[in-house]
Structures are given as C-alpha cells and as structure tokens.
Amino acid sequence: MAETNxxxxxEEVARAFVNHYYHLFDNDxxxxxxxxxxxSLLTFEGQKIxxxxxxxxxxxxxxxxxxxxxISTVDSQPSSMAGGCGGILVFVSGSIQLHGEDxxxxxxxxxxxxxxxxxxxxxxxxxxxxxxx
Amino acid sequence: MAETNxxxxxEEVARAFVNHYYHLFDNDxxxxxxxxxxxSLLTFEGQKIxxxxxxxxxxxxxxxxxxxxxISTVDSQPSSMAGGCGGILVFVSGSIQLHGEDxxxxxxxxxxxxxxxxxxxxxxxxxxxxxxx
Lengths: 133, 133
What we know:
2 copies of one chain form a homodimer. The first copy, chain A, has helices at about 10-25, 50-60; strands at about 35-45, 45-50, 65-80, 90-100, 105-115, 120-130. Chain A is of the alpha+beta class. Chain A has one domain (about 10-130): Nuclear Transport Factor 2, Chain: A (Roll). The longest helix of chain A has 18 residues, at about 10-25. The interface of A and B includes residues 46, 85, 95, 112 and 129 of A.
C-alpha cells in the first residue's frame, strides 16, 4: 500500500488498509497484486495459495466479476508486543454484494500486514471465509 | 497449551489448539487463563483487553455460563516466512449454542499463537466477533 506508517496507530493503518484493499478489489482487482510479496500466503475458502503470482491468478479467476464489499467491523492489534516485526493483524467482517444477486454474502477475513523498510506494508497473511448459515 | 511443537505442521498445532481452547471454554472456562501471557491482547466484540488478568476477568464475566462451540472451519498459516518468531495464525468460524437459547450464534475468531522456549504456545493475539445477519 502506498501509505506510510509514520506516527499512525495500528487502528489508523488498519482502517486505511481496509479502505484501500476493498476499493481496489471492487474497482481494479488486478491492482491488488501490488499489496503482496513473494512470501505472502492467501487461504481462500480453505485453499492455500503462495506468492504474488499465484495469488494474483486466484483473485483474477474468482467466479464473479463485479462485486461490492460492505464492511461491518474492523478490529486490529499489533502482532507482537515484544520488539517483533512491527506487524499488524486486521480482522474484518462484512458482506459482499455480487452483481446480479439478490442477497449479499456474509464474510470474515483476517490479514497480517508486515512493514517494509520504506514504511509501507505488504500482506504477509490473508485468510478469507464466507459465513454460511 | 500443554502440547509441544516438535515435528508438527502448523495445521496440526492449530487443530490441537482449537480443540483444546474450545474444550476449556465450554467445560472449564477459568482454565483458559493458562493460555495467555502478560503481553496477550484480546479484542472481544470490539473491546480491547490486555494481559492475563484482565482477559481472565473478561472471560469470567461473559453474560452466559454454559455454552457449546461447534466449529465449522479452521484455517492456519505461519505468521512469518522469513525467520520470524515461529508464530501461527489460526482463523476459526463456527457457532455457539448458549444454554436455554433456541438458535446458535455464528462467530468468527482469529488467534495468533506464539511459541515459548519449552515448545508450547501462548495466545499473543485474539479477536472475536459474532456474525450477525
């Protein structure tokens, strides 16, 4: 992500990340690949996908083109209190409105953001689940 | 948790942790405090709680006594690929059946488990949300 971490709380970083991520997802999905690194891991509905290229292909091939995310909650925490890597955990709940479908689908999603030397973050970990029932 | 990490994949650790955590939650909730450390963070329905004692008090004071968790999905990933702390992210979805209530409540929960020198893990991060709608 383009923003830097200078002087911002993890809540501010998390909120900015969430806005940025879902804006790209809904409007320019191929640009999401800029948020990942070669070590990134995505688990999408139980399927594990490793690295920028395979994650990009997975996102590109999802069986829907147009969608709109509605975010209900954003929780965040530093991923280590003891001089760790400065990562941030972000836990999102919300719903996805797919184009042409009557009812939105509930989902939950977890991200682990890890800082880069220049002050921006990449997605080290991401796990997505639809919430059925 | 009592188990060690010797030779186990993060999926095996995650599954064992999930079984252990929800068994304690449903049968001996006060014992959950053994899973936390002074640096632990719990975000419960948006409320942030820090450290073993306050987390213990929060869990003890939840407005229901008897409950049963039904786990739908367990996803897990190492929290760092690049020689990090050896942590494991665990992402759970399921439902809670409260005693005397007709309908179970859907929930999602994220844990970040961090290893201790003796090979067990503690909960560094935990975030819980009911999934309404």
